[in-house]
Specification:
The protein is of the alpha/beta class. The protein contains eight helices and six strands, in the order ααβαβαβαβαβαβα. It has a single domain, classed as Leucine-rich repeat, LRR (right-handed beta-alpha superhelix) (Alpha-Beta Horseshoe), CATH 3.80.10.
Amino acid sequence: MAAAAAAQIPPYGTPDGYHGPFESERFLTELSEDQAAMLARGRGDVHLDALVEITAPVARILSRHRGTLSLPSLATIDPETCVALARHRGNLLLNGLRALSPEQATALVGHRDWLGLDGLETVSDEVAETLCRHFGVVSLQGVRTVSAAALAALRSCPHIRLHEALTKSSLDARSDRGVGDRRNRRR
């Protein structure tokens, strides 16, 4: 039965540079520690598009992988799993997360490469300040609603990538000043 099910999963091939141990990784809904170890040894990017839950032990094993680790279907993860994933060297894409607590943000700050959190629609003031301590790029392209304090914190960090609606509003505020406005004159 397992062979028949595996045959029904269409392989996605290697055009995107995948060189992992099995081609059906994108379709895995569960991941054992043994499967995680196989993926961690593979070369190239790991995209676990259908994985909706991950345990801290599995995350610790996956964090040994070098390259992009994409977990877009994880809607929530606990802080212990965040700590494990933060050890990953390479891009870490957690674009399925809809909320991020201060504890999770603190754990993820330990990550050193690109951190994708594009599924977040809002971040608290505390989370915004915490993410500014991240050493790599943090992508928050989904964030649309933030407090003035959180927006100021995020805008002050050059490595934070925000949706253009949030970055544009700062440019619009400057362009709203007239040419003759004293605030626009050079000194």
